[in-house]
Specification:
Length: 191
């Protein structure tokens, strides 16, 4: 917390609770920022929202009695992201990927990612996914959350998490396939 911030807002926890907060929650700050960055698709917005989420977590830490501080923090970050999106980019929440425009391929997301420019192509492919699909992929594949943790973070039943993850992977594959096809056509034109 910033030393310049004063007042009762940061004095909500006693010394023992502050130490507990630092021990349980602060190790997950990078995961919180990572989730916010992928959901919001912007570093500056993610920094602001992640910081606000950490302040919320700090303010309400006295009510935390669970065993999984990471899932609790990521749920706060997720909620803060969607609140921010509703205020600032309402169209982002309703934008869906049009499956009819992108033909399916037998290639897997992994094999396409390995085929050069993998990090950049994967980043672009993730960014075109709707926020709800990005978040389950980020939580599962980048943050290593279990289905149970994702269900807790997103307030979805485990079956819905598995379904959303499957659909997100399919859409990621389609996006990578489209990007790979476009790149191949471009390379053929250069020959």
């Amino acid at each position: 917390m910033s030393p310049g911030v004063q007042g009762s807002e940061l004095d909500v926890l006693n010394l023992q609770e502050r130490m507990r907060f630092e021990q349980l929650v602060l190790p997950h700050v990078d995961a919180a920022f990572n989730l916010a960055r992928w959901v919001l698709r912007g570093r500056n917005d993610a920094e602001d929202v992640a910081q606000e989420a950490l302040l919320r977590a700090y303010r309400f830490f006295g009510g935390f009695h669970g065993a999984d501080a990471r899932a609790w923090l990521l749920q706060i970050v997720r909620n803060a992201c969607y609140s921010w999106l509703e205020k600032n980019r309402p169209m982002d929440l309703s934008t869906e990927f049009d499956e009819q425009l992108h033909p399916q391929s037998s290639a897997t997301p992994e094999s396409l990612a390995i085929a050069g420019d993998d990090r950049e192509r994967l980043t672009r492919a993730l960014e075109v996914l709707p926020p709800r699909f990005r978040e389950v992929l980020v939580l599962r594949e980048l943050e290593g959350c279990s289905y149970k943790e994702i269900a807790s973070i997103t307030s979805m039943p485990i079956g819905s998490v598995m379904s959303a993850l499957s659909r997100a992977r399919q859409r990621l594959q389609q996006s990578l396939t489209q990007a790979g096809t476009a790149k191949n056509l471009e390379a053929q034109r250069e020959l």
